[in-house]
Design a protein that fits this description.
heterotrimer, A mainly alpha, B mainly alpha, C alpha/beta, A: mainly alpha, 74% helix, globular, B: mainly alpha, 15 helices, 2% strand
Chain lengths: 319, 388, 335
């Protein structure tokens, strides 16, 4: 157990090192430099560009830049090139904005996928199964931004309520209750949008997993014992079908920081995705690299958690 | 039952009382015809393919029949099926169909012509990107699955590292360093090849080169792990934003960032197939590795790979549309479904057709790929088949 | 009258078809048999002849669709199982009829302890306190010959060997002391030595618990060891029935005779074993007339068109071969 833990942590740190090198290379090998963002801007005299290059260590050899960057990252001393704000503080602020979207979206995804998927599997090839199957494909295939527009048109035309942004303009002056309601209302559309794709994919996965288990011999044994069908499905079958989903819990973690670039830009939501998008536009390398690094850490932590969870829930796996 | 065997059975006895046998192709086609969703997907895809080819013919060239780039400012934002105001336009500006089938955009360009042009772009982006990712996936997955247990020697690792860093350095300033590394790498390579060819007995000076380091499988799977650490859309966005805007870059980037699934999958197929008896039999007959891989293993692994490729095309088309939507897609004036939609977002209440025409088209085409791919997965899956 | 009270299970003209691509597969095509109380009945036949489907149809465990019960009656202890509401049939399963399956490796749920899985059968059908269930589980495991039963109830199936798992399956089937145990090739997946142990165990338990056993197998050796009466099935129908003695000594159907000829015995030492030509027909493409005729040594032209009737040889011995029946009659009259 401890040996396994040690081995996988060493392995994951090695992976992280390569990720950091590769992301650094991708960004620095691409043509163009942040100092040349806008050659027409009269403020960018050669002297200023030179000063900027020095300040951002762009004049040093690449490995020095790499070491300096990660030294700064680990000492928490890293600043955005655009506005000179501390990157970690910026990320934390945006992270708090994305968090409600992420939480609501995840809860929606997981609470809808399971009942839908299980019910389709139990009543395989029935009307319910066929219609949810088609609906799932429809939701998987629809471009997110197009779906967002359809929803916005419908909501705005039918209900005449603002949907863009995190809260209505000037609402902060109103009573706390109005404030809270306003916030919740603004959350609804983007989190529904964020969840639809997830519900479609996950419910299909639940269905196929459940179908596979229902075909197993031990489910037939459970029936032969005379158990009621609810016990057969929700105890014997579901318990086995859930095993792979336990591992998916760990894989939710990266979603914490990823956010959705497209949904956040449509709804003008000042979250992580938007920040990453803006950083890419501005070639704000420290922000891009930090977001990337944190995501990689979360991915690796997520897989580790998944492995550990699997050991807890599956009696066949012992270390 | 062991005591009953067939060696003295008259052959005719068997055949009469067995279901008619079909070739695998006929069997697949038979099952496909019975799966209505998958068949609809296939038909839609074929129609889309024909439209894309026709669109390429009609909208390209010096003087295209349907000109997607023709600007008619006096005819902007006309609704679908509107007839042009003939008095305001010159002769060559008239749409050849006599009406704007899908309306016009904010510059008075014919949306139908632009959609036709975009069809070809979507098609090529989908196919080329998936072609790249599937090729990498099959190559790496096949190597990891079939040769995975072989060890890479220290020499090999060093050669690759030297050559790779030489290539990387040659892109940046360090040209001299790059040349030094390249020379070192090539020298080692020559040493390595000669040593392999001549004798198994190594001279003491380069004996360290034969020290095993890690398994091929480990190397490839760690590479997959590393790639999976990048958030994929974010990575694509970063690279596309940093590179000069071009349709080829988008194809390449989507392809180069989505091969991990295929690799894992092909590796698993190869691992299980290489343990099968027919492969053991082929090996016992002294058949060469390459022939085993291509004649015996590949045909068994290729069907599921094609299925995941079909689904990959759907994803790639959605990714392209998303990139175009964010303004990182195929550069103007080239029309793609994504940038038509993106251009239309400012007129969503006044000219909804600019959003709905491309949006619905993307939806239908991607849906077709998904339905066809998932249908084929069910059809080719023997486990599901038995349960029917 | 006494005779009919003694009958526990009777299956009459049962037909089970599987609908799918092409013509319906007639897996069970008119099967009749009876099981009396405290009797061991063996159903013998090659794989694919409809033995398992018949057993699943009795318990109502067939997947419908693709399976459909196309005709016939199943009566258990005077009640018709096919007309029974699903809930009542469920109550019957596990309590009055227990089933043991072929694959002990996959028939136990991997994520629950064996104690849970045995106790569950008791809890479903009886109102008993948890401690009593535990004690009963331990006793059951003890009875099926699992040592250290107290400790083993905490084990998961993967910690047991194949033979032990089959013992657990037997304990599970016995949990509510059913009147009938249906055992579907319970020893096929096991090593030969373990097979013998399981057979002995079943025989012993059958005596102790005074149960009836319907034992499904393809192994004539097993039949000889345990059967009171035997039904031989081929291509979805019963071709011959009788006591074990009648079947082994005076087989009257060419298929049974061919099976016996194919069995290695001391007398046949050094000879080449007989093997039946051809193979079992696909249930959707069965031959007309007698289903066995393409592989039969005694076939006449009539066999290709006329479906054979059961022919009565007396004292419960019947065979579905009019050709041999006519021969036998002739021999009797001439002698």
């Amino acid at each position: 157990m401890l040996a396994f833990l040690g081995r996988s942590i060493v392995q994951k740190i090695a992976t992280l090192f390569f990720v950091s090198v590769i992301s650094f290379l991708i960004i620095h090998l691409a043509p163009g430099e942040p100092s040349q963002i806008d050659p027409l801007n009269p403020k960018f005299t050669p002297e200023i560009v030179e000063r900027m290059r020095k300040e951002f260590n762009l004049d040093k050899p690449m490995y020095v830049q790499y070491l300096l960057y990660y030294k700064n990252l680990f000492t928490g001393n890293i600043h955005s090139w655009r506005d000179n704000q501390p990157v970690l503080g910026k990320i934390w602020e945006r992270f708090l904005n994305s968090l409600p979207l992420f939480i609501v979206g995840t809860i929606l995804t997981w609470t809808f996928s399971f009942p839908v998927g299980i019910r389709s599997a139990i009543a395989r090839d029935g009307i319910y199964d066929k219609s949810t199957t088609f609906l799932a494909y429809l939701l998987i295939s629809i471009p997110g931004f197009f779906f967002a527009y359809i929803l916005i048109i419908m909501v705005v035309n039918q209900l005449h309520v603002p949907v863009i942004g995190m809260q209505s303009f000037g609402v902060t002056a109103a009573s706390p209750l109005v404030n809270v309601m306003d916030r919740i209302w603004h959350l609804v559309l983007p989190s529904i949008l964020g969840a639809t794709g997830g519900v479609a994919v996950l419910s299909r996965y639940v269905r196929s997993q459940m179908l596979e288990i229902i075909g197993q011999d031990y489910v037939r044994t459970a029936r032969a014992k005379g158990l009621p069908s609810e016990t057969v499905y929700y105890k014997h079958a579901l318990r086995n079908a859930l095993l792979p989903f336990v591992t998916m819990f760990g894989l939710i973690l990266p979603g914490l920081i990823g956010g959705s670039v497209i949904i956040e830009s449509i709804f003008a939501w000042p979250g992580m995705g938007r920040m990453a998008y803006e950083a890419i536009l501005a070639r704000d390398y420290p922000v891009i690299l930090t977001v990337n690094f944190i995501t990689a850490v979360l991915v690796l932590a997520g897989t580790l958690i998944s492995d550990l969870l699997y050991m807890v829930v599956d009696p066949r796996i012992k270390l | 039952m062991a005591v009953i065997d067939q060696h003295n059975a008259p052959a005719a006895v068997d055949e009469t009382y067995m279901p008619p046998s079909r070739s695998p192709w006929a069997e697949t086609w038979y099952r496909l015809r019975r799966n209505r969703l998958a068949l609809t997907g296939l038909v839609t895809f074929l129609v889309f393919f024909a439209v894309a080819v026709a669109g390429l013919a009609l909208t390209s060239g010096k003087d295209p029949i349907l000109d997607p780039a023709r600007v008619r400012l006096q005819e902007k934002l006309r609704p679908p099926l509107a007839t042009p105001k003939t008095d305001a336009l010159r002769m060559e500006e008239l749409p050849p169909l006599g009406l704007y089938l899908l309306g016009t955009d904010d510059l008075g360009r014919d949306v139908f012509a632009r959609m036709l042009q975009g069809a070809w772009v979507s098609l090529t982006v989908g196919f080329v990107a998936v072609g790249i990712s599937v090729s990498i996936g099959i190559l790496l997955g096949g190597i990891a699955g079939y040769y995975g247990r072989n060890y890479i020697t220290l020499g090999q690792l060093l050669i690759w590292l030297l050559l790779a860093s030489a290539v990387i350095l040659s892109f940046t300033a360090g040209m001299t360093a790059a040349i030094i590394l390249a020379v070192a790498g090539i020298t080692l390579l020559i040493l390595h090849v000669r040593q392999n060819r001549d004798t198994p007995e190594l001279p003491a000076t380069i004996r360290w080169m034969a020290v095993p380091t890690m398994q091929v499988d480990t190397l490839i799977m760690r590479a997959v792990d590393i790639m999976l650490c990048f958030p994929s859309f974010f990575l694509i966005l970063t690279v596309v934003a940093l590179l000069p805007a071009s349709i080829y870059n988008i194809m390449a980037v989507i392809g180069l960032t989505s091969w991990m699934g295929t690799t894992r999958f092909v590796r698993a197929e190869f691992l299980s197939l290489r343990e099968q008896d027919f492969v053991a039999a082929a090996r016992a007959l002294g058949i060469s590795d390459l022939r085993i891989i291509f004649r015996h293993i590949m045909p068994n692994a290729v069907a599921p790979v094609l299925v995941s490729a079909t689904l990959g095309i759907a994803t790639a088309m959605l990714t392209e549309a998303g990139l175009s939507f964010l303004g990182f897609g195929v550069p103007p004036p080239h029309a793609t479904w994504g940038n038509i939609l993106s251009d239309g977002k400012g007129y969503i209440f006044d000219a909804p057709w600019l959003t709905f025409a491309p949006g619905l088209t993307i939806l239908v085409v991607v849906l077709a790929f998904n339905l066809f791919g998932e249908g084929m997965r069910d059809i080719l899956n023997p486990k599901l088949r038995e349960r029917n | 009258m006494k005779q009919s009270q003694n009958i526990l299970l009777s299956v009459e003209g049962l037909k089970v078809h599987f609908l799918g691509d092409g013509p319906p597969a007639r897996a069970v095509d008119g099967v009749d048999f009876t099981v009396r109380r405290q009797e061991t009945v063996c159903i013998v036949g090659e794989s694919g002849c409809g033995k398992t489907v018949t057993a699943l149809a009795i318990l109502g465990l067939l997947k419908q669709p693709p399976a459909v019960i196309a005709g016939g009656r199943i009566t258990f202890d005077g009640r018709s199982l096919l007309d029974m509401p699903a809930e009542a049939l469920r109550e019957l399963r596990g309590r009055r009829i227990g089933m043991i399956f072929q694959e002990p490796m996959t028939s136990l749920n991997p994520v629950f302890t064996i104690g849970d899985q045995i106790g569950e059968a008791v809890l479903t059908h009886e109102q008993v306190p948890a401690e009593a269930v535990r004690q009963r589980t331990v006793r059951l495991l003890d009875e099926v010959g699992i040592a250290d039963a107290e400790q083993r109830i905490q084990d998961y199936p993967h910690q047991l060997s194949g033979g032990q798992r089959q013992r657990v399956m037997i304990a599970m089937a016995l949990a509510c002391e059913p009147d009938l145990i249906i055992a579907d090739e319970p020893t096929t997946a096991l090593d030969v030595t373990v097979q013998a142990q399981i057979l002995t165990l079943l025989k012993k338990l059958k005596q102790e618990k005074r149960m009836a056993v319907q034992y499904i197998t393809h192994d004539l050796g097993v039949v000889a060891a345990i059967a009171d009466r035997v039904y031989v099935m081929y291509a979805g129908i019963v071709v011959e029935q009788g006591t074990a003695g009648q079947i082994f000594d005076r087989a009257r159907h060419p298929y049974t005779m061919a099976l016996l000829d194919a069995l290695p015995t001391k007398e046949k030492r050094g000879q080449r074993l007989y093997s039946i030509p051809g193979s079992v027909p696909h249930p959707a493409y069965k031959p007309k007339g007698c289903p066995f005729h393409p592989r039969c040594r005694y076939r006449r032209s009539a066999c290709e068109t006329v479906y054979p009737d059961m022919c009565e040889y007396g004292r419960g011995h019947r065979a579905r071969c009019p050709v041999l029946f006519a021969d036998a009659l002739q021999m009797e009259t001439s002698s």
